[in-house]
């Protein structure tokens, strides 16, 4: 049995920095491909050449006929498939590790700045710290959770790795079909020197091999679907956030007054709102006018503080972003769900908005945090 | 073959390598050692049993096999991997020596934080730079030498299907058929390609180190 631990160790690290669908894909890879290959398929193909019998006494005829029938054995083909399909994830992991290292350097730099400025006097300290913090947001590091957030260049790398992985998967499935078709025949008729004439050759264990071939093909197709699902989900999220960003940027009357204070921050942060649809459907102008902007923006700041922490916990239970999550944009949510609304109105709406659940105002039907 | 020991040793070196060095190590483990262990050893497993010669003369098959495969591809690759990994041990030894020196200073009373010492990232500067660069240089040399040995010993990188053997005690020119030639050619070319990639990575790392030291020197002198 081959030793897959070299690849296994690397992929364990990738596991930590993947989305939920990515983790499912990795599990499928480990259990249904590597394990099955290593334990069952290897022993089934073990005697593939020794029990490949040809109806001839001509020395060398069996060798050449086997070579013609199986230019590359199924098992080796699957080994190469697994390795090539895993390789893009390793590239992503390299980028993630690089991000981690950059983050560590940034933290060290921040600590230095802090130490220096505390000595010299406080003004510059806050400016520098906030600029360093902004860089952190853009680079994809979450302070509170201590995990890598999937956004910016890291998200791009992730998406490219999935695209390449999908392409490799398709290439190998097509390659397998081109080389062998789908099923193995029991009888192979061979005409090749030094065989004197067309010779009947019999494949060893064809039915058992067919079972494994179909199984591995099915798992490959499943992995392909998982990769496509992940791509779709990431693409959908990106499109949603782009729509909401363009909505935020468009000028409007009452809602735009609320946006004034946190607008600059929001523009710098690459964050999707929790529920784009809610923003569109709520007729904000009716409800915002009774309240002052100052109160709303104060509430926004308070919401921001709580939701930044709680957004991570919330995201932990939802969607594809367990370890890698989008930071919620509370201002975007709160402009659609202004803080001082009557409770009843928001019973339904708030259920869709993750951010409003973590609003600093305690409500009876809020989830406890 | 137990490659775990090599993995343990080289894993330690990984901490003090450049980024390119880390990529090289990953390529080495996944595309070379793993392929060797998981796939290639199976392909070459029955190379002598299924080496068939068109003769009934006892001993002819053995002699012909020995004549055409003085050292099996698998063993050559294993040697290549060991030789190519060995220079990294020089770096590991140098780093260990540096840490030992620092510990000695600590014992002699100089103030050095133990925690820092353990976690310290040793930068590639000074004598360590020379050790590291020469290790990469030797790596490149070993890769090139082994690639040439492969080419010379097997007349190219393709595994022939039929070899004609005249060694004694074969009575005449005898046809011998190699087992799984196409699969073996596929893996030979694959391993060759990966060796090439590793060589390119090593050359890139060498250039990077040289440029880094050249960039530093003008700043030092000014």
TrEMBL record, chain A:
Membrane topology category: Multi-pass membrane protein
A GO MF term: gap junction channel activity involved in atrial cardiac muscle cell-AV node cell electrical coupling
Residue spans of biased composition, Polar residues class: 246-255
Keyword Cell membrane: yes
Region (Disordered) residue spans: 246-265
Domain Connexin cysteine-rich residue range list: 168-234
Regions crossing the membrane: 20-41, 78-100, 212-232
GO annotation, biological process: cell-cell signaling; heart development
Alphabetical keyword list: Cell junction, Cell membrane, Gap junction, Membrane, Transmembrane, Transmembrane helix
Keyword Protein biosynthesis set for record: no
Function per UniProt: One gap junction consists of a cluster of closely packed pairs of transmembrane channels, the connexons, through which materials of low MW diffuse from one cell to a neighboring cell.
Family per record: Belongs to the connexin family. Alpha-type (group II) subfamily.
Protein name in UniProt: Gap junction protein
Organism: Malurus elegans (Red-winged fairywren)
Gene that encodes it: Gja5
UniProtKB/TrEMBL annotation, chain B:
Residue span(s) of domain Connexin N-terminal: 42-75
One of the record's GO cellular component terms: connexin complex
InterPro entries xrefs: Connexin, Connexin_CCC, Connexin_CS, Connexin_N, Connexin_N_sf
Keyword field: Cell junction, Cell membrane, Gap junction, Hearing, Membrane, Transmembrane, Transmembrane helix
Recorded topology in the membrane: Multi-pass membrane protein
Subcellular location field: Cell junction, Gap junction; Cell membrane
GO molecular function annotation: gap junction channel activity
Membrane spanning residue stretches: 21-40, 77-97, 128-154, 187-211
Annotated ranges, domain Connexin cysteine-rich: 142-209
An example Gene Ontology biological process: sensory perception of sound
Claim: Membrane is one of the keywords in the record: yes
Function: One gap junction consists of a cluster of closely packed pairs of transmembrane channels, the connexons, through which materials of low MW diffuse from one cell to a neighboring cell.
Family recorded in the similarity comment: Belongs to the connexin family.
The protein's assembly and partners: A connexon is composed of a hexamer of connexins.
Protein name: Gap junction protein
Record organism: Malurus elegans (Red-winged fairywren)
Gene: Gjb6_0
């Amino acid at each position: 049995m081959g030793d897959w631990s070299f690849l296994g160790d690397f992929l364990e690290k990738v596991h930590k920095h993947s989305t939920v669908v990515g983790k499912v894909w990795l599990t499928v890879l480990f259990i249904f491909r590597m394990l099955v290959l290593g334990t069952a398929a290897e022993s089934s193909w073990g005697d593939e050449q020794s029990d490949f019998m040809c109806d001839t006494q001509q020395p060398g005829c069996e060798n050449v006929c086997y070579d013609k029938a199986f230019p590359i054995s199924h098992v080796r083909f699957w080994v190469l498939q697994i390795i090539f399909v895993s390789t893009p994830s390793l590239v992503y992991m390299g980028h993630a590790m690089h991000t981690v290292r950059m983050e560590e350097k940034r933290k060290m730099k921040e600590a230095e700045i802090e130490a220096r400025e505390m000595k010299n006097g406080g003004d510059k300290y806050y400016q520098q710290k906030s600029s360093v913090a902004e860089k952190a947001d853009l680079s994809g590091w979450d302070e509170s959770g201590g995990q890598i957030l999937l956004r910016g260049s890291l998200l791009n790398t992730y998406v490219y790795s999935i695209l390449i992985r999908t392409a490799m998967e398709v290439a190998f499935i097509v390659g397998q079909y081109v080389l062998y078709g789908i099923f193995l025949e029991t009888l192979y008729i061979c005409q090749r020197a030094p065989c004197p004439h067309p010779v009947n050759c019999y494949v060893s264990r064809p039915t058992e091999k067919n079972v494994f071939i179909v199984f591995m093909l099915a798992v490959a197709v499943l992995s392909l679907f998982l990769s496509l699902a992940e791509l779709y989900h990431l693409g959908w999220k990106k499109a949603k956030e782009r729509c909401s960003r363009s909505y935020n940027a468009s000028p409007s009357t009452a809602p735009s007054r609320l946006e004034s204070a946190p607008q600059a921050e929001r523009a710098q942060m690459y964050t999707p709102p929790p529920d784009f649809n809610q923003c569109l459907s709520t007729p904000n102008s009716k409800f915002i006018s009774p309240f002052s902007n100052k109160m709303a923006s104060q509430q926004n700041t308070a919401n921001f503080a709580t939701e930044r922490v709680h957004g991570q916990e919330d995201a932990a239970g939802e969607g594809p972003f367990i370890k890698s999550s989008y930071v919620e944009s509370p201002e975007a949510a709160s402009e659609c769900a202004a803080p001082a609304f009557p409770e009843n109105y928001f019973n339904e709406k708030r259920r869709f908005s993750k951010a409003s659940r973590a609003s600093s105002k305690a409500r009876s039907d809020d989830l406890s945090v | 073959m137990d490659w775990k020991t090599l993995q343990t040793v080289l894993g330690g070196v990984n901490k003090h390598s450049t980024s390119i060095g880390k990529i090289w190590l990953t390529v080495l483990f996944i595309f070379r050692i793993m392929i060797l262990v998981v796939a290639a050893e199976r392909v070459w497993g029955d190379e002598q049993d299924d080496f068939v010669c068109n003769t009934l003369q006892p001993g002819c098959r053995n002699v012909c096999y020995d004549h055409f495969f003085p050292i099996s591809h698998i063993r050559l690759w294993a040697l290549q991997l060991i030789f190519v990994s060995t220079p990294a041990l020089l770096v590991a030894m140098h780093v260990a020596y540096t840490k030992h020196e620092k510990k000695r200073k600590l014992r002699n009373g100089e103030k050095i934080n133990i925690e820092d010492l353990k976690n310290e990232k040793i930068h590639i500067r000074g004598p360590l730079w020379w050790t590291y660069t020469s290790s990469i240089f030797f790596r490149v040399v070993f890769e090139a030498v082994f690639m040439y040995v492969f080419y010379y010993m097997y007349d190219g990188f393709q595994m022939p299907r039929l070899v004609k053997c005249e060694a004694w005690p074969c009575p005449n020119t005898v046809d011998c058929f190699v087992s799984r030639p196409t699969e073996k050619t596929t893996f030979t070319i694959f391993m060759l390609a990966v060796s090439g990639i590793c060589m390119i990575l090593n050359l890139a790392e060498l250039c990077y180190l040289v440029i880094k030291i050249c960039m530093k020197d003008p700043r030092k002198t000014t």
